[in-house]
Amino acid sequence: MVRRTIAAGGGVLVVILLVLLLRACLDSRSDRAVRDYANSSAALVKESNAQSTALFRLLQGSGGPNQAVDAQNTVNGFRVQSAQIVDRARDLDVPGDASSAQRYLLETLEFRRDGLARIATALPDALGDASRRQGSEGVARQMQVFLASDVIYAGRFRPTLLKALADRGVNGVTVPTSAFIPDIKWLQPATVADAIAGVRSGRGASNDQASGGLHGNGLVGVSLGGAALTPGGSATVQLSADTAFEVQVANQGENTETDVEIAVTVGTGSDAIDLTGTIDSIAAGETKSVTIALQEQPPTGQNVPIKVNVKPVPGEQKTDNNTQTYSVIFTR
User: Fold this and answer.
1) What integer is the mean pLDDT of 137-164?
2) What angle do CA 54, 58, 62 make, to 5 degrees?
3) Phi, psi of 92 (to 5 degrees)
4) What's this model's pTM, rounded to 2 decimal places?
């Protein structure tokens, strides 16, 4: 009887040891699975980070005669590569502990894939002659898409995966940081437009060197709602739904200028209305007009100061004829 009791106790002990051993093996396997997932996802994120670096280096390039063509080819390559990164992310072995992190990883990489694909679609227009503004605006909108990917990665994916690693006691694994947008300035459409203009002209967004010869534009005339404005004088303009400025600009240099920006300020101080317009291209000696809609209602029944400024182009030295001020009384 004693022997049977001892034997039974020994059997129970063996079963307990086997259960503990099996549990330890399963825990070790789970730890290894989370570690492998973290390392695999980190490799994909690093590839995505490299795409960001290459994209914004391209937008700030030093220029070159074939830069516009090279830019389109490069971004088309990014589109293909980013789609492949998403496919590889879907094929990862995902342990249960990392299922939430995997969902956020896919959202991050899909946003980046979609943003690059849309930039590849918009870039030919942005770099061409017919629809430059629409193309540039299409590229600029994708910066918000990239920002969304950054928010999901930093606020959801990374902390979720770090918690999964900590819960399993897995150490020595690095979950990289990732911000596709390198600087908040890229969220400004004007920054994107300037960069694309640099790519288009071959001078690069970070290179203010202009081609040889004289550069410069001058403000020729301004009308508002069909009424010609006189510097220092006052005009009366009746407001309507389609009231707009008509600004005439002359290229007084020896080079064709592109993306000439015109700024209009209606009023002063915190209540001022700021408006902008762009002339895509203006040849040497040519005069062109741009229509800028008055999108907000200014004060009526009083003199309202108006300032119109043709922003200097690269290489422009003489700027005393770029700006004029006017006065308008608006009526209903």
Assistant:
1) 95
2) 130
3) -65, 150
4) 0.58
